[in-house]
Design brief:
By secondary structure, this protein is of the alpha/beta class. The protein has ten helices and ten strands. The protein has one domain: Rossmann fold, CATH 3.40.50. An eight-stranded mixed beta sheet has the order 2-3-5-4-7-8-9-10, with helices on both faces.
Length: about 300
């Protein structure tokens, strides 16, 4: 598998982002290895809070949430998916599959030895993160889901998603920072937009970002549809608390919170919340509030503050 690695110089002096990088190696499934980057902040014996980003962002998305969670005594883990951030980037688009993303992050989960974790997931962070929970349930104590879903292709996707999918394939310039800015309520500064662009010096680094929209199961016979149906069944049977914290201004995932609440027993009795004045990337719009939501969720469910 041929890969690119974004030069470290791209990540110097990013706006509001002063965290130490951590790395591990996972098998790429093709006889080689991939370097995965992640943040690891807070006390080692704190309950892990796993923050999973989506498309086309990276762990920079969580810079507003990390300080509050660390100050509350939690160990915060925020990996960069393969193809994003400081993680390695396969250059061939067909090297990226839904299965491979789940496999790479499962390996990372086991290498870092994450246990008793609280998952916070948004966008593709949920498509991958919820599969991690379903298939490694012994490692998780709870889930907070925001602006995400676990599609099976049994329900036709909305026009907003289909428009995004078409745009991602047809636009000559896949301007990551501007894409993220267009999916927030607040206007991001030029410095923040540049930070989202930092992992992608040119289009050759964007194979994963370009491919992700095509990997979402949109038909019942998609290769990942049945696996996701089975994951729904596993999630429904889990006896762990599950909270939804969707924003009020995201047309792509609107209504997804109600689907989780209807289908998962872990949602029963939870203080589900709607984040007001939040766009698709609500971590940018309401990051500090989301950190408080997670802290309250852990407290309300007596999930502890240390291991």
């Amino acid at each position: 598998m041929k890969t690119l690695r974004t030069p470290d110089s791209q990540f110097e002096n990013l706006e509001g982002f002063d965290f130490k990088p951590n790395y591990c190696q996972v098998n790429d499934g093709d006889g080689g290895q991939l370097r995965v980057h992640y943040l690891d902040e807070g006390p080692n014996d704190g309950v892990p809070v796993l923050l999973m980003h989506g498309e086309p962002s990276w762990c920079y998305l969580y810079r507003k949430m990390i300080p509050g969670l660390v100050n509350a005594g939690y160990r915060v883990l925020a990996p960069d998916l393969v193809g994003f951030g400081r993680s390695d980037k396969p250059i061939e688009r067909n090297d990226y599959t839904y299965h491979s993303h789940v496999d790479w992050m499962t390996q990372w989960l086991k290498i870092v030895d994450v246990n008793h974790a609280i998952l916070f997931c948004q966008d593709w962070g949920g498509l991958i993160g919820l599969r991690l929970v379903a298939e490694n349930s012994e490692r998780f104590a709870g889930v907070v889901a925001a602006n995400t879903f676990l599609p099976t292709g049994d329900v036709k996707p909305g026009q907003e998603f289909l428009d995004w999918q078409a745009y991602s394939q047809n636009t000559p310039e896949f301007a990551v920072g501007n894409i993220i800015n267009g999916a927030t309520v607040t206007n991001l500064s030029p410095e923040v937009i540049a930070a989202y662009d930092a992992p992608f010096p040119d289009d050759s680094y964007k194979a994963g970002a370009r491919q992700f929209p095509l990997l979402v199961p949109t038909t019942p016979d998609d290769p990942s549809s049945q696996v996701n149906r089975e994951a729904w069944g596993k999630l429904a049977s889990l006896d762990i608390p599950f909270l939804t914290a969707f924003s009020d201004q995201d047309p792509i995932t609107s209504g997804g919170d109600k689907a989780f609440q209807k289908m998962l027993s872990g949602c029963e009795g939870q203080k589900h919340i709607t984040i007001e004045n939040g766009g698709h990337f609500l971590q940018e719009d309401k990051g500090e509030q989301l950190a408080e939501v997670i802290i309250n969720f852990i407290s309300d469910n007596d999930l502890g503050i240390s291991l």
